[in-house]
Fold this sequence. Notes:
- The structure is a homodimer.
- The longest helix of chain A has 14 residues, at 2-15.
- In chain A, strand 20 and strand 21 (419-427) form a beta hairpin.
- Chain A is mainly beta.
- Chain A has a 20-stranded mixed beta sheet that branches.
- Chain A is globular and about 85 Å long.
- Residues 1-21, 78-84 and 236-245 of chain A have low confidence and may be disordered.
- Chain A has three domains: 12-77 and 86-119, Nuclear Transport Factor 2, Chain: A; 129-215, Nuclear Transport Factor 2, Chain: A (Roll), CATH 3.10.450.40; 249-654, Beta-galactosidase, Chain A, domain 5 (Distorted Sandwich).
- Chain A is built from nine helices and 32 strands.
- In chain A, 12% of the residues lie in helices and 41% in strands.
- At the A-B interface, helix 1, strand 18, strand 19, strand 21 and strand 23 of A face helix 1, strand 18, strand 19, strand 21 and strand 23 of B.
- Chains A, B: Residues 125-218 form the Copper amine oxidase N3-terminal domain.
- Chains A, B: Belongs to the copper/topaquinone oxidase family.
- Chains A, B: Residues 1-21 form the signal peptide.
- Chains A, B: This is Amine oxidase.
- Chains A, B: Pfam families: Cu_amine_oxid (PF01179), Cu_amine_oxidN2 (PF02727), Cu_amine_oxidN3 (PF02728).
Amino acid sequence: MNISIILLLLIVALNFSITQSFQHPLDPLSPKEINEIRVIIEKSHLKTLKNLTYHFVDVDEPEKDDVLHWLSSSSSSSSSSRKTKLLPRRAKVVVIGGGQTRELVVDLSKRLIVLDHVYKGHGYPPLTFEELLQASLLTQKDPRFLESLSRRNLKGSQVSCLPLTKGWFGEHVSTRGVKITCFYRNGTTNIYARPINGITILFDLELMKVTTYMDRYRAPLPKAKGTEFHSRPVQPGPSYPNITNSKFSIQGNLVTWGDWKFHVAFNSRAGTIISAASIFDGKENKYRRVLYRGHVSETFVPYMDSTEDWYYRTFMDVGEFGFGKAADSLQPLVDCPGNARFMDGYLVDAFGMPNLLPRAICVFQRYSGDVAWRHTEIGVPGRVIRNGEPEVTLVVRMIATVGNYDYILDWEFRQTGSITVGVGLTGVLEMKATSYTSMDQVTEEMYGTMVAPNTIAINHDHFLTYYLDLDVDGNENSFMRSSLQSERVRRMSTPRKSYWNVKKKIFKREAEARIRLSSKPAQLMVVNSNKKTNVGNPVGYQLITGQPAYSLLADDDYPQIRTAYTKYQVWVTPYSKSERWAAGFYADQSHGDDGLTVWTRRNRKIENKDIVLWYTMGFHHVPCQEDFPIMATLRSSFELRPTNFFDQNPITYKVKS
Amino acid sequence: MNISIILLLLIVALNFSITQSFQHPLDPLSPKEINEIRVIIEKSHLKTLKNLTYHFVDVDEPEKDDVLHWLSSSSSSSSSSRKTKLLPRRAKVVVIGGGQTRELVVDLSKRLIVLDHVYKGHGYPPLTFEELLQASLLTQKDPRFLESLSRRNLKGSQVSCLPLTKGWFGEHVSTRGVKITCFYRNGTTNIYARPINGITILFDLELMKVTTYMDRYRAPLPKAKGTEFHSRPVQPGPSYPNITNSKFSIQGNLVTWGDWKFHVAFNSRAGTIISAASIFDGKENKYRRVLYRGHVSETFVPYMDSTEDWYYRTFMDVGEFGFGKAADSLQPLVDCPGNARFMDGYLVDAFGMPNLLPRAICVFQRYSGDVAWRHTEIGVPGRVIRNGEPEVTLVVRMIATVGNYDYILDWEFRQTGSITVGVGLTGVLEMKATSYTSMDQVTEEMYGTMVAPNTIAINHDHFLTYYLDLDVDGNENSFMRSSLQSERVRRMSTPRKSYWNVKKKIFKREAEARIRLSSKPAQLMVVNSNKKTNVGNPVGYQLITGQPAYSLLADDDYPQIRTAYTKYQVWVTPYSKSERWAAGFYADQSHGDDGLTVWTRRNRKIENKDIVLWYTMGFHHVPCQEDFPIMATLRSSFELRPTNFFDQNPITYKVKS
């Protein structure tokens, strides 16, 4: 074991070089900058506001053109001259104070608030961890709740309460609030397995008190037995000490690996953000642009139980709270393999203070035993020619634990030019108590699966919408569908009667590029018609999806109005700096009057423009007993695959022939 | 490097134990048995037949009931008593001799031919490597071909000719034959990159001579430059020496790993066959049956060019030749990781002789850096509870190189009870020559993509049909579809307006269980309604597919008539020992009068029966330049996932709570 640790350390030392972070315009805010922002605000005209809380603090990026210019000039100039070219450093801050939501832009170089705007639209900014914790704690001290517990013979010390976002259901007047749901741990650490059902608690986040309390009925409490899950010790690896085919480096937030270079940022709302991903073309002998920006834009997790305790559970975790805020400190050897390198992240709390999140992101080379390419040729007389290479990829991983669920979020870069975006779902199901202990007793609709005695796990969906600002060899791109169509053979020179061919369509405007994937076969591509391969094909990247899913809710149902875009998996918009969040920025209690559906009503032109591809990955989750008490990871992915982007398989550029 | 090799050897010694093979009724024929079969036939009444060639030699398995009985008694008795329970050992042999195809059953214990039947139906048995080689060599000596070469100024020494199966296109009378297509290597080992187009050559395999020869036109020959691909050296790994979470053993053809045990056979037609896969249930404290048999049943690869050189290319590689016969000797460190164990295979040549194929199958533990399950709980006051485990799986791999294409065929077993069946496509595209060097010159239909100057890669499909004889906790199973249906909320006690629920349907007969997957969401399951979980759910395994594809050819087109089942991805049949090959046993030049489509016309009952699930995985392949000169592996998979099979996630059975 000593020997392998020494070997591992040696390889770590060989493979990785880390230097002090330098300021890239897309770098997340540093703790020093976060402190500066708070100080600037505290010294400003806002200092008189009571109970000022910070709900969103992020770098306010320079314009895309400026960033692109910075990138191209910084890559061609020496590192010493970089500092002189720094773009203005600004932050976007959303605070609540004096009962108002204010959008601020803080200029860090000028040390000034350069914009202060009171937001008066629908919806609220992301919730803070601190107010959610307060809501739980205050509820657990509420006399009405204590009485409910005593009526059920439950010990208060064994209760955990969780605040859940309450959605929007047509109310004309509403206040910021959450619904509180409570669990009885007593004998387990799997709190979700023992829900205390029958109590409705509405907590007002402006008044910071319970405003509605209803103890409606008592339900049996599922047993603690069989609900625990604990790791077995991992010994001593796993790791891949022997992978030396390729190396990677992390300099600040810049990752270079094989032919790839890209910027990785940790963001409180989106989690991992991949920016300015370019790939070196060994034939053209230069880096070529692929993806200006990619990240999760929104999630939508509606539960399929229309009863009082459940109807409102229609979560939009990214917008309501934040995948970055929910990011978990990664466990070495469990969440990431032994060869992983970790990147820390900083979050801003409700008081504007920077909080370190150690190991927010990991980056590792993956060798899963797969084959990148291979062929054996026996057609050359007297020889058997075997060729091939093992596939080594680079994975950038983050895990968001949003209450009960854990989302494993991967960006995987391949030497072939592909980017695979993977999502793994694990964690604990949301469950309700029932008096039934066996299916043969069931007489009414359950809205889910009985996964244990007295325990029903509720049917639900997960939709993850990705923002994919592809810049295939430049900004001017188009979105193309190549449909495969059955054809009859017209000239009957052979007995063959049919075949399929490819009908290509370039989409002109937003409305037509809104696509619900069907079983009709088609390739979806982002192409650059201004740039051709050696034989004249437009260069492009293809979107290869997994099994598609779209929302099955009614169009007029409130959660669906807020996330209307989930009826289609694919949307294309012209790039606009302000259009990042598919359900709008103010997602908490939103009314559906911002976001993808609204922006695209203008039906803007998207041909030969700087376009953004939005893809929604979906899971319909009918729970099963194997999901209890902890889910085996359920995975899905999509791939951005170079398709006539290179003149030929780029792997062969590296191979001496 | 020395140290790591020593470590590796140590771990190999610790992890694997191999004993002398013992005879399991599903074991493939040993070289000794193959020799015995040949001797028995050579001494029989068949000895007078001229030019007797062996086209198929396989174990003729005992009846399933007998095998199951043997399995259950052998697992409960001591190993010494096993020998007394050996089932009769028989072989199925198909020979051609005296112009007739004969089906023989050879009893190895009695040393007798116990069945001799002359087959007079349509189609022919699998082609032999020897006759295909002869066809190529004889064509290259044909004076007409030599003249064609000289007319093109091509050197005969640089030509490679390949025989292609010719399909069936409505001929009433036909003879066994192949079409020969030739390539000019001169300067490359990528023979497919330089097709010599414009020559039609029909080779008669009964007469063993060219019977049709037409030199129709001359096409430009694509250049050799840029067509090569060669491996870079792999140094020194990759491997996973540190994975010690789980061990596996191979005893003869029996593999045990974690809770799984199963039988792996190498078969000339199907390639890898997985049999009698059972999983140990830590709660019930016994092995439970999952999959009696799983293997590739047929492949269908139609090309989408209706012209003279291409229309007939509608390959059924498994039936026409055999995935096992096409299996490649696996390259350690490239095709399988450093920790892989290899299993040899034996093939029978045209003369009835056993041929060793070293490293036909590899078995390895995979750790790809993924997470089997995890959760972080912050809801327990004062604690942050992190749990999880890395995911280690067991992969059984074979690679079939069928001419230009390489199929990487994986069976991956998970500790959660899932089986993932993966297919990777790599190798070289089939291409035709063209006078075009750039897309802007193109004026007519190309039937494919220009991937290099003068080179068009033809559009095509790959359909791989899997035979999946699931026996979920016993023989009596049913096939169930759980459809997700949008519902309006009827009782308006909450403002929620819609949800989805699950409508279950058990299929009664074959005709209704023929399913074309659509975007309508549904779960497909094989359930055992006679066996319930602790809370009364029928135990089951779910089929989770990737992006589905079905054949786009016209129903009345000849290749589609031969593979009519490819219009639907899912079929269910009652188990019948003789129904193994989806397009019928005699696939070469078949007329579509055997196989899945024909068997199911009887519309047999499938409820609570021993049923077989047939799933067809499909790829529509529109080639791109990145596929040239060698394809980066394109992957697809499906999963058989336990769904209410266990009372809870079986991983938690191992975890002390």
